[in-house]
Protein backbone atom coordinates (compact mmCIF):
# COMPACT_ATOMS: atom_id res chain seq x y z
CA UNK A 1 0.00 0.00 0.00
CA UNK A 2 1.57 3.25 -1.15
CA UNK A 3 2.68 5.87 1.37
CA UNK A 4 2.44 9.39 -0.06
CA UNK A 5 2.15 13.01 1.06
CA UNK A 6 -0.84 15.31 0.75
CA UNK A 7 0.40 17.10 -2.36
CA UNK A 8 0.89 13.84 -4.22
CA UNK A 9 -2.56 12.65 -3.24
CA UNK A 10 -4.23 15.84 -4.42
CA UNK A 11 -2.42 15.63 -7.75
CA UNK A 12 -2.76 11.93 -8.52
CA UNK A 13 -5.33 10.25 -6.32
CA UNK A 14 -8.34 12.50 -6.06
CA UNK A 15 -11.54 10.44 -5.82
CA UNK A 16 -13.41 10.18 -9.08
CA UNK A 17 -17.03 11.19 -9.38
CA UNK A 18 -19.72 8.50 -9.59
CA UNK A 19 -21.33 10.66 -12.29
CA UNK A 20 -18.79 9.77 -15.00
CA UNK A 21 -20.70 9.27 -18.25
CA UNK A 22 -20.73 5.88 -19.95
CA UNK A 23 -22.79 6.30 -23.11
CA UNK A 24 -22.85 2.60 -23.96
CA UNK A 25 -24.12 1.75 -20.47
CA UNK A 26 -26.79 4.44 -20.74
CA UNK A 27 -27.96 3.16 -24.12
CA UNK A 28 -28.33 -0.36 -22.72
CA UNK A 29 -30.15 0.82 -19.61
CA UNK A 30 -32.54 3.06 -21.54
CA UNK A 31 -33.33 0.21 -23.91
CA UNK A 32 -34.17 -2.06 -20.96
CA UNK A 33 -36.36 0.60 -19.34
CA UNK A 34 -38.28 1.21 -22.57
CA UNK A 35 -38.77 -2.52 -23.15
CA UNK A 36 -40.18 -3.04 -19.64
CA UNK A 37 -42.54 -0.10 -20.11
CA UNK A 38 -43.82 -1.57 -23.38
CA UNK A 39 -43.91 -5.30 -22.62
CA UNK A 40 -44.31 -5.46 -18.82
CA UNK A 41 -44.07 -8.91 -17.25
CA UNK A 42 -42.97 -10.51 -20.53
CA UNK A 43 -39.87 -8.32 -20.57
CA UNK A 44 -39.10 -9.17 -16.93
CA UNK A 45 -39.31 -12.90 -17.61
CA UNK A 46 -37.11 -12.52 -20.68
CA UNK A 47 -34.42 -10.52 -18.88
CA UNK A 48 -34.43 -12.88 -15.91
CA UNK A 49 -33.76 -15.78 -18.24
CA UNK A 50 -31.10 -13.82 -20.13
CA UNK A 51 -29.18 -12.32 -17.20
CA UNK A 52 -29.88 -14.72 -14.31
CA UNK A 53 -30.30 -17.97 -16.23
CA UNK A 54 -33.65 -18.58 -14.57
CA UNK A 55 -36.97 -19.34 -16.26
CA UNK A 56 -39.51 -18.04 -13.79
CA UNK A 57 -43.10 -19.13 -13.44
CA UNK A 58 -43.96 -16.49 -10.83
CA UNK A 59 -42.34 -13.10 -10.17
CA UNK A 60 -43.81 -12.75 -6.67
CA UNK A 61 -42.29 -14.78 -3.81
CA UNK A 62 -44.94 -17.10 -2.36
CA UNK A 63 -45.76 -17.62 1.31
CA UNK A 64 -44.42 -21.17 1.06
CA UNK A 65 -41.05 -19.79 -0.03
CA UNK A 66 -40.95 -17.62 3.09
CA UNK A 67 -41.66 -20.68 5.23
CA UNK A 68 -38.92 -22.68 3.48
CA UNK A 69 -36.47 -19.80 3.94
CA UNK A 70 -37.16 -19.61 7.66
CA UNK A 71 -36.45 -23.34 7.99
CA UNK A 72 -33.25 -23.03 5.95
CA UNK A 73 -31.49 -20.52 8.20
CA UNK A 74 -30.05 -21.13 11.66
CA UNK A 75 -31.57 -19.99 14.91
CA UNK A 76 -28.42 -17.99 15.60
CA UNK A 77 -28.99 -16.02 12.37
CA UNK A 78 -32.61 -15.33 13.30
CA UNK A 79 -31.42 -14.12 16.71
CA UNK A 80 -28.83 -11.83 15.13
CA UNK A 81 -31.40 -10.38 12.72
CA UNK A 82 -33.79 -9.63 15.57
CA UNK A 83 -31.08 -7.97 17.63
CA UNK A 84 -30.00 -5.87 14.68
CA UNK A 85 -33.63 -4.95 14.00
CA UNK A 86 -34.05 -3.82 17.60
CA UNK A 87 -31.01 -1.53 17.50
CA UNK A 88 -31.76 -0.12 14.04
CA UNK A 89 -35.38 0.53 15.01
CA UNK A 90 -34.41 2.30 18.24
CA UNK A 91 -32.01 4.62 16.44
CA UNK A 92 -34.33 5.47 13.57
CA UNK A 93 -37.33 6.02 15.82
CA UNK A 94 -35.55 9.17 17.05
CA UNK A 95 -35.69 10.56 13.49
CA UNK A 96 -39.49 10.66 13.33
CA UNK A 97 -40.82 14.04 12.30
CA UNK A 98 -44.08 15.55 13.48
CA UNK A 99 -46.53 17.92 11.90
CA UNK A 100 -46.51 21.36 13.46
CA UNK A 101 -48.57 24.54 13.44
CA UNK A 102 -47.89 28.08 14.58
CA UNK A 103 -50.54 30.68 15.23
CA UNK A 104 -49.72 34.30 14.53
CA UNK A 105 -51.70 37.34 15.55
CA UNK A 106 -54.47 38.74 13.37
CA UNK A 107 -55.93 35.43 12.20
CA UNK A 108 -53.01 33.66 10.50
CA UNK A 109 -52.36 29.92 10.91
CA UNK A 110 -49.23 28.41 9.33
CA UNK A 111 -47.77 24.95 9.60
CA UNK A 112 -46.27 21.86 8.08
CA UNK A 113 -48.01 18.52 7.68
CA UNK A 114 -45.79 15.44 7.54
CA UNK A 115 -47.20 12.39 5.74
CA UNK A 116 -45.53 9.11 4.70
CA UNK A 117 -44.91 8.11 1.10
CA UNK A 118 -47.56 5.53 0.17
CA UNK A 119 -45.52 2.89 -1.68
CA UNK A 120 -41.76 2.31 -1.61
CA UNK A 121 -39.62 -0.17 -3.55
CA UNK A 122 -36.31 -1.41 -2.16
CA UNK A 123 -33.64 -2.88 -4.40
CA UNK A 124 -31.56 -5.60 -2.73
CA UNK A 125 -28.58 -6.98 -4.71
CA UNK A 126 -28.67 -10.75 -4.99
CA UNK A 127 -27.85 -13.71 -7.15
CA UNK A 128 -24.52 -15.04 -5.83
CA UNK A 129 -24.49 -12.85 -2.70
CA UNK A 130 -26.91 -12.15 0.15
CA UNK A 131 -27.54 -8.77 1.79
CA UNK A 132 -30.06 -9.13 4.62
CA UNK A 133 -28.58 -6.03 6.26
CA UNK A 134 -29.67 -3.98 3.23
CA UNK A 135 -33.23 -5.16 3.84
CA UNK A 136 -33.20 -3.94 7.44
CA UNK A 137 -31.50 -0.62 6.71
CA UNK A 138 -34.05 0.30 4.03
CA UNK A 139 -37.27 -1.30 5.22
CA UNK A 140 -37.16 -0.39 8.91
CA UNK A 141 -36.91 3.41 8.41
CA UNK A 142 -39.74 3.18 5.87
CA UNK A 143 -41.84 1.21 8.35
CA UNK A 144 -41.19 3.74 11.11
CA UNK A 145 -42.16 6.56 8.74
CA UNK A 146 -45.52 4.86 8.21
CA UNK A 147 -45.15 3.79 4.57
CA UNK A 148 -48.27 1.78 3.67
CA UNK A 149 -46.66 -0.69 1.26
CA UNK A 150 -43.00 -1.75 1.18
CA UNK A 151 -41.83 -4.08 -1.58
CA UNK A 152 -38.45 -5.57 -2.43
CA UNK A 153 -36.93 -6.39 -5.81
CA UNK A 154 -34.00 -8.81 -5.75
CA UNK A 155 -32.47 -11.15 -8.36
CA UNK A 156 -33.24 -14.87 -7.99
CA UNK A 157 -30.60 -17.49 -7.31
CA UNK A 158 -29.81 -20.12 -10.00
CA UNK A 159 -32.49 -22.37 -8.45
CA UNK A 160 -35.13 -19.70 -9.08
CA UNK A 161 -35.55 -18.85 -5.40
CA UNK A 162 -34.59 -15.78 -3.40
CA UNK A 163 -31.75 -16.11 -0.90
CA UNK A 164 -33.27 -17.36 2.38
CA UNK A 165 -31.35 -14.83 4.50
CA UNK A 166 -32.92 -12.00 2.51
CA UNK A 167 -36.42 -13.47 2.87
CA UNK A 168 -36.08 -13.97 6.63
CA UNK A 169 -34.89 -10.38 7.00
CA UNK A 170 -37.79 -9.17 4.83
CA UNK A 171 -40.30 -10.98 7.02
CA UNK A 172 -38.73 -9.58 10.20
CA UNK A 173 -38.77 -6.05 8.77
CA UNK A 174 -42.44 -6.24 7.79
CA UNK A 175 -41.96 -6.10 4.01
CA UNK A 176 -45.25 -6.63 2.19
CA UNK A 177 -44.02 -8.30 -1.00
CA UNK A 178 -40.80 -9.58 -2.58
CA UNK A 179 -40.30 -9.72 -6.35
CA UNK A 180 -37.82 -11.98 -8.13
CA UNK A 181 -36.23 -9.49 -10.47
CA UNK A 182 -32.93 -7.67 -10.67
CA UNK A 183 -30.95 -5.14 -12.65
CA UNK A 184 -32.21 -2.14 -14.61
CA UNK A 185 -35.37 -4.07 -15.48
CA UNK A 186 -36.34 -4.24 -11.79
CA UNK A 187 -35.91 -0.49 -11.41
CA UNK A 188 -38.06 0.10 -14.48
CA UNK A 189 -40.79 -2.22 -13.19
CA UNK A 190 -40.85 -0.50 -9.81
CA UNK A 191 -40.92 2.94 -11.41
CA UNK A 192 -43.62 2.31 -14.04
CA UNK A 193 -45.41 -0.87 -13.00
CA UNK A 194 -46.31 -4.01 -14.96
CA UNK A 195 -49.24 -6.43 -14.96
CA UNK A 196 -47.94 -8.00 -11.72
CA UNK A 197 -46.25 -5.01 -10.12
CA UNK A 198 -47.81 -1.81 -8.87
CA UNK A 199 -45.60 1.23 -9.41
CA UNK A 200 -44.00 2.79 -6.35
CA UNK A 201 -43.39 6.43 -5.44
CA UNK A 202 -39.78 6.00 -4.32
CA UNK A 203 -36.95 3.53 -4.96
CA UNK A 204 -34.09 2.99 -2.51
CA UNK A 205 -31.24 0.53 -2.15
CA UNK A 206 -27.81 -0.14 -3.71
CA UNK A 207 -26.93 -1.99 -6.88
CA UNK A 208 -24.44 -2.38 -9.70
CA UNK A 209 -23.74 0.17 -12.43
CA UNK A 210 -26.88 -0.82 -14.36
CA UNK A 211 -29.07 -0.35 -11.31
CA UNK A 212 -27.46 2.99 -10.48
CA UNK A 213 -27.94 4.34 -13.99
CA UNK A 214 -31.51 3.07 -14.14
CA UNK A 215 -32.28 4.89 -10.91
CA UNK A 216 -30.83 8.05 -12.38
CA UNK A 217 -32.96 7.76 -15.53
CA UNK A 218 -36.27 7.08 -13.74
CA UNK A 219 -35.68 9.88 -11.24
CA UNK A 220 -38.37 12.50 -11.74
CA UNK A 221 -41.03 9.93 -12.50
CA UNK A 222 -40.28 8.48 -9.06
CA UNK A 223 -38.05 9.60 -6.21
CA UNK A 224 -34.77 7.82 -5.41
CA UNK A 225 -32.49 7.80 -2.40
CA UNK A 226 -29.14 8.50 -4.07
CA UNK A 227 -26.76 7.38 -6.82
CA UNK A 228 -24.27 5.30 -4.87
CA UNK A 229 -20.72 4.75 -6.02
CA UNK A 230 -18.12 2.23 -4.81
CA UNK A 231 -17.57 1.90 -1.06
CA UNK A 232 -15.09 4.19 0.70
CA UNK A 233 -13.32 4.39 4.03
CA UNK A 234 -11.03 7.09 5.37
CA UNK A 235 -9.21 6.49 8.65
CA UNK A 236 -7.45 9.24 10.59
CA UNK A 237 -4.95 7.48 12.87
CA UNK A 238 -2.31 8.53 15.36
CA UNK A 239 0.26 6.51 17.33
CA UNK A 240 -2.46 5.31 19.75
CA UNK A 241 -4.23 3.38 16.98
CA UNK A 242 -3.49 -0.33 16.72
CA UNK A 243 -1.92 -0.91 13.34
CA UNK A 244 -3.57 -4.36 13.08
CA UNK A 245 -7.01 -2.79 13.56
CA UNK A 246 -6.42 -0.05 11.00
CA UNK A 247 -5.21 -2.55 8.39
CA UNK A 248 -8.19 -4.83 8.98
CA UNK A 249 -10.62 -1.92 8.64
CA UNK A 250 -9.05 -0.72 5.40
CA UNK A 251 -9.31 -4.23 3.96
CA UNK A 252 -12.92 -4.59 5.14
CA UNK A 253 -13.85 -1.95 2.55
CA UNK A 254 -11.32 -2.94 -0.09
CA UNK A 255 -12.87 -6.43 -0.29
CA UNK A 256 -16.19 -4.95 -1.47
CA UNK A 257 -15.10 -4.05 -4.97
CA UNK A 258 -11.99 -3.48 -7.09
CA UNK A 259 -13.15 0.16 -7.32
CA UNK A 260 -13.54 0.60 -3.54
CA UNK A 261 -11.37 3.23 -1.88
CA UNK A 262 -9.43 2.70 1.36
CA UNK A 263 -7.38 5.62 2.71
CA UNK A 264 -5.53 6.24 5.95
CA UNK A 265 -4.36 9.71 6.97
CA UNK A 266 -1.68 10.06 9.66
CA UNK A 267 0.98 12.52 10.79
CA UNK A 268 3.28 9.66 11.81
CA UNK A 269 5.51 8.42 8.97
CA UNK A 270 6.79 5.44 10.97
CA UNK A 271 3.19 4.34 11.63
CA UNK A 272 2.42 4.74 7.92
CA UNK A 273 5.11 2.28 6.84
CA UNK A 274 4.17 -0.21 9.57
CA UNK A 275 0.58 -0.01 8.34
CA UNK A 276 1.61 -0.60 4.73
CA UNK A 277 3.40 -3.79 5.74
CA UNK A 278 0.49 -4.94 7.92
CA UNK A 279 -1.98 -4.53 5.05
CA UNK A 280 0.13 -6.77 2.84
CA UNK A 281 0.43 -9.31 5.65
CA UNK A 282 -3.33 -9.49 6.27
CA UNK A 283 -4.07 -9.66 2.57
CA UNK A 284 -2.47 -13.10 2.45
CA UNK A 285 -5.22 -14.55 4.65
CA UNK A 286 -8.19 -12.71 3.19
CA UNK A 287 -10.80 -14.82 1.40
CA UNK A 288 -11.47 -12.07 -1.16
CA UNK A 289 -7.77 -11.25 -1.47
CA UNK A 290 -7.74 -10.69 -5.24
CA UNK A 291 -10.53 -8.10 -5.06
CA UNK A 292 -9.02 -6.34 -2.04
CA UNK A 293 -5.54 -6.34 -3.59
CA UNK A 294 -6.86 -4.71 -6.77
CA UNK A 295 -8.66 -2.06 -4.73
CA UNK A 296 -5.60 -1.33 -2.57
CA UNK A 297 -3.33 -1.11 -5.61
CA UNK A 298 -5.61 1.20 -7.57
CA UNK A 299 -7.18 3.42 -4.90
CA UNK A 300 -5.59 2.54 -1.55
CA UNK A 301 -3.31 5.19 -0.07
CA UNK A 302 -1.64 6.05 3.24
CA UNK A 303 -1.23 9.80 3.35
CA UNK A 304 1.32 11.40 5.68
CA UNK A 305 0.39 14.97 6.61
CA UNK A 306 2.35 17.66 8.44
CA UNK A 307 -0.28 18.32 11.11
CA UNK A 308 -3.65 17.22 12.42
CA UNK A 309 -5.11 20.43 10.95
CA UNK A 310 -3.88 19.38 7.51
CA UNK A 311 -5.38 15.93 8.07
CA UNK A 312 -8.78 17.39 8.93
CA UNK A 313 -8.75 19.71 5.92
CA UNK A 314 -7.90 16.80 3.66
CA UNK A 315 -10.61 14.49 4.95
CA UNK A 316 -13.20 17.27 4.67
CA UNK A 317 -12.11 17.71 1.04
CA UNK A 318 -12.50 13.96 0.44
CA UNK A 319 -15.92 13.88 2.19
CA UNK A 320 -15.75 10.10 2.70
CA UNK A 321 -18.64 7.69 3.02
CA UNK A 322 -17.12 6.18 6.18
CA UNK A 323 -14.74 8.07 8.47
CA UNK A 324 -12.95 6.44 11.40
CA UNK A 325 -11.21 8.68 13.94
CA UNK A 326 -8.73 6.28 15.52
CA UNK A 327 -6.97 8.89 17.62
CA UNK A 328 -6.38 9.53 21.31
CA UNK A 329 -9.26 11.98 21.83
CA UNK A 330 -11.67 11.60 18.90
CA UNK A 331 -14.47 13.65 20.48
CA UNK A 332 -12.22 16.71 20.39
CA UNK A 333 -11.94 16.42 16.60
CA UNK A 334 -15.64 15.80 15.99
CA UNK A 335 -16.69 19.50 15.83
CA UNK A 336 -14.13 20.04 13.07
CA UNK A 337 -15.59 17.35 10.79
CA UNK A 338 -17.89 18.92 8.19
CA UNK A 339 -18.16 16.25 5.50
CA UNK A 340 -18.61 12.55 6.22
CA UNK A 341 -21.43 10.04 5.79
CA UNK A 342 -20.84 8.26 9.10
CA UNK A 343 -18.20 8.94 11.75
CA UNK A 344 -16.79 6.13 13.91
CA UNK A 345 -14.92 7.11 17.06
CA UNK A 346 -12.05 5.19 18.66
CA UNK A 347 -10.39 1.80 18.26
CA UNK A 348 -13.49 -0.27 19.00
CA UNK A 349 -15.99 1.33 16.62
CA UNK A 350 -15.06 -0.21 13.25
CA UNK A 351 -17.08 0.53 10.14
CA UNK A 352 -18.15 -3.12 9.93
CA UNK A 353 -20.06 -2.61 13.19
CA UNK A 354 -22.06 0.13 11.48
CA UNK A 355 -22.85 -2.14 8.54
CA UNK A 356 -24.83 -4.54 10.70
CA UNK A 357 -25.50 -3.82 14.34
CA UNK A 358 -24.69 -0.32 15.63
CA UNK A 359 -28.06 1.19 14.69
CA UNK A 360 -27.43 4.14 12.33
CA UNK A 361 -28.10 3.53 8.66
CA UNK A 362 -25.38 2.06 6.48
CA UNK A 363 -26.80 3.57 3.28
CA UNK A 364 -24.46 6.54 2.99
CA UNK A 365 -23.41 9.19 0.45
CA UNK A 366 -20.33 8.26 -1.62
CA UNK A 367 -17.92 9.88 -4.09
CA UNK A 368 -17.68 13.13 -2.16
CA UNK A 369 -21.44 13.67 -1.97
CA UNK A 370 -21.26 13.64 1.83
CA UNK A 371 -20.37 17.31 1.36
CA UNK A 372 -24.04 17.98 0.57
CA UNK A 373 -26.12 14.89 1.41
CA UNK A 374 -26.96 12.60 4.31
CA UNK A 375 -27.43 8.94 5.30
CA UNK A 376 -30.73 7.25 4.51
CA UNK A 377 -33.25 7.81 7.28
CA UNK A 378 -36.89 8.01 8.27
CA UNK A 379 -36.97 11.52 6.79
CA UNK A 380 -36.42 9.98 3.33
CA UNK A 381 -39.79 8.23 3.47
CA UNK A 382 -42.04 11.19 4.29
CA UNK A 383 -43.33 14.27 2.48
CA UNK A 384 -43.94 17.70 3.91
CA UNK A 385 -46.92 19.89 2.96
CA UNK A 386 -47.12 23.55 3.92
CA UNK A 387 -50.36 24.66 5.60
CA UNK A 388 -51.64 28.24 5.14
CA UNK A 389 -54.83 29.77 6.53
CA UNK A 390 -55.72 33.49 6.61
CA UNK A 391 -58.93 34.96 7.92
CA UNK A 392 -60.60 37.78 5.99
CA UNK A 393 -59.12 40.33 8.36
CA UNK A 394 -55.61 38.86 8.13
CA UNK A 395 -55.84 38.77 4.34
CA UNK A 396 -56.69 42.45 4.09
CA UNK A 397 -53.70 43.41 6.24
CA UNK A 398 -51.21 42.00 3.69
CA UNK A 399 -53.23 42.29 0.46
CA UNK A 400 -51.76 45.56 -0.83
CA UNK A 401 -48.20 44.34 -0.20
CA UNK A 402 -48.90 41.25 -2.31
CA UNK A 403 -50.34 43.40 -5.10
CA UNK A 404 -47.19 45.52 -5.14
CA UNK A 405 -44.90 42.49 -5.33
CA UNK A 406 -46.98 40.86 -8.08
CA UNK A 407 -46.96 44.08 -10.10
CA UNK A 408 -43.17 44.32 -9.78
CA UNK A 409 -42.93 40.87 -11.34
CA UNK A 410 -45.36 41.73 -14.12
CA UNK A 411 -47.92 39.14 -13.03
CA UNK A 412 -51.22 40.99 -13.34
CA UNK A 413 -53.24 37.82 -12.81
CA UNK A 414 -51.62 37.32 -9.43
CA UNK A 415 -52.36 40.89 -8.46
CA UNK A 416 -55.98 40.55 -9.60
CA UNK A 417 -56.38 37.36 -7.54
CA UNK A 418 -55.63 39.51 -4.51
CA UNK A 419 -57.38 42.72 -5.54
CA UNK A 420 -60.68 40.98 -6.26
CA UNK A 421 -60.83 39.90 -2.61
CA UNK A 422 -59.78 43.17 -0.98
CA UNK A 423 -62.35 44.52 1.40
CA UNK A 424 -64.44 41.37 1.01
From TrEMBL:
Binding site for NAD(+): 123, 185, 208
Cofactor(s), by name: Zn(2+)
Catalytic activity: L-histidinol + 2 NAD(+) + H2O = L-histidine + 2 NADH + 3 H(+)
Top-rank lineage group of the source organism: Bacteria
Entry annotation: catalytic residues: 321 (proton acceptor), 322 (proton acceptor)
UniProt keyword annotations, A-Z: Amino-acid biosynthesis, Histidine biosynthesis, Metal-binding, NAD, Oxidoreductase, Zinc
Sites where the protein binds substrate: 231, 253, 256, 322, 355, 409, 414
PROSITE patterns (UniProt xref): HISOL_DEHYDROGENASE (PS00611)
Keyword Amino-acid biosynthesis: yes
Protein name as catalogued: Histidinol dehydrogenase
Amino acid sequence: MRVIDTETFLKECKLKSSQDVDFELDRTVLSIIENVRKKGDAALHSYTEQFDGVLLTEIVVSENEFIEANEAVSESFRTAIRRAKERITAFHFEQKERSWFIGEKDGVLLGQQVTPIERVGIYVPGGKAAYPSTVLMNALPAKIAGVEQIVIATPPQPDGKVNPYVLVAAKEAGVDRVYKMGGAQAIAALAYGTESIERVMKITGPGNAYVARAKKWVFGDVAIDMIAGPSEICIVADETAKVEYVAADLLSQAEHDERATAICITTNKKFAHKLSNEVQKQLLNLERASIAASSIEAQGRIIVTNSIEESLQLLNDIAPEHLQLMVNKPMELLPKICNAGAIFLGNYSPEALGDYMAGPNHTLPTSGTAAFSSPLGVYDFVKRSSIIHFTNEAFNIVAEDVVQLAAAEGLAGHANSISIRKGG
